[in-house]
UniProtKB/TrEMBL annotation:
The keyword Membrane does not apply. Keywords: Lipid biosynthesis, Lipid metabolism, NAD, Oxidoreductase, Phospholipid biosynthesis, Phospholipid metabolism. It catalyses: sn-glycerol 3-phosphate + NADP(+) = dihydroxyacetone phosphate + NADPH + H(+). Belongs to the NAD-dependent glycerol-3-phosphate dehydrogenase family. It comes from Sphingobacterium psychroaquaticum. The keyword Amino-acid biosynthesis does not apply. This is Glycerol-3-phosphate dehydrogenase. GO terms for biological process: carbohydrate metabolic process; glycerol-3-phosphate catabolic process; phospholipid biosynthetic process. It comes from the Bacteria.
Amino acid sequence: MEESRPSVGMIGSGSWATAMLKMLGDNTSSKELLWWIRKEEDLAYVRQYKHNPTYLSAVELKVNPENLYQSARTVIQKSDIVILNTPSAYLEVALQDVEAADFEDKIIVSAIKGIVPGDNLIVGEYLQRNYQIPLENIVVVGGPCHAEEVSLEKLSYLTLAAKNNDNALRVAAVLQNRYIKTVTTSDVFGVEYGAVLKNIYALAGGICHGLGYGDNFQAVLVSNAIREMEKFVFAIDAEESRDINASAYLGDLLVTAYSQFSRNRTFGNMIGKGYTVQSAQLEMNMVAEGYYASACIQNIIQQYGLDMPICDTVYQILYNKQSAASEVVKLTEKLS
């Protein structure tokens, strides 16, 4: 890797990928940006107009038209730093033509806040198992950071988690700019699982809002949620020291639970109002990671024998088709 000016490749073309491309474009530390766009018509549009026609369409993207590809493998091969930024459910398809050798000697960044459904693995574990990528080469991006606010250049903070702090600092160097600040941590598993869990808790908050519960109850729900999160991440990785009140955990939970831009809260609100899962997904036309995460996390909760009533409530509503109203009433008796 060219130490001072690495090339950066983006795999994904949703709102978060688009926002991160804006961050990268507003930073002069990379020698070039490369972008994998799945749909041919979207690629042609970006090449001509330098805007994503589907997500954050007002954002002008500073990407050379010659560095746009429909081949994820090409982008990965040409990049020093690779940012994976698809919905977790689509990662396997995005990488279907990619081989383990294509990732060698590169920093691999996961900006995916979800679990790969078929494998029931967080992205870092999925990459280690399927592509033999050393944990030291993986950097995880944590929030709190909504794509919509990044597009408006509102001050935001990213947490970069890596076992190799030099790699975290290299990624920070290409992402930070006048409206993006960065911090680093070694808590890879805590940050990645925290990002998964906060989506489930935002879904719970949305369900309760859709049912008519107010701000007083939402505050109780979120305070219980952060304690659940702490219990879970310490069960997964007890050796790592972490402050659960740090931005990557509590901060990301708060913004996802309360923000108008939170698709998981929006999805949950629709469920609380009586939408089916399928109808809510169709109307949103965006992926709510918390839906897929709920089933995956439930398996892990059972594996470790953890008592996590909020996660269990969301799972019962989404997957066992239990009444949202009755399940939340039962949940209220378990909160404090």
